Amino acid sequence: MAVDIAAPSCCAEPEKAPLDHDGLRAWLLAHPDWEGVVWHHPDGRMAKLKRRDFLL
């Protein structure tokens, strides 16, 4: 599954995005300028997690 970061391409680190709740929250806190992360499934489905989902 591919991962995109809602951040400038020069700053994207999709391979480092954790998959657990606490890890994702900490990861987004460490990148305050990023809006969130988007997962792309090979069949076309997508899931987006935004900073505001964590009340950040």
Order of helices and strands: EHEE
Helicity level: 10-25%
Mean pLDDT: 76
Which term fits the overall shape? globular
The number of helices is: 1
Please indicate the percent range of residues in DSSP E strands (runs of 2 or more). Answer: 25-35%
Q: Could you state the oligomeric state of the chains shown?
A: single chain
The strand line-up of the biggest sheet is 1-2-3
Structural classification: alpha+beta
Global Rg: 11 Å
Structure description:
16% of the residues lie in helices and 25% in strands. With 56 residues, the chain is of the alpha+beta class. Strands 1-2-3 form a three-stranded antiparallel β-sheet, with no helix packed on it. The longest helix is centred in the middle third of the chain and has 9 residues, at 21-29. 5% of the residues are buried.
Q: Could you list some keywords that capture this structure?
A:
single chain, 56 residues, alpha+beta, 3-stranded antiparallel beta sheet, 1 helix
Topology readout:
Elements: E1 2-5, H1 21-29, E2 36-40, E3 46-50
In short:
It is built from one helix and three strands.
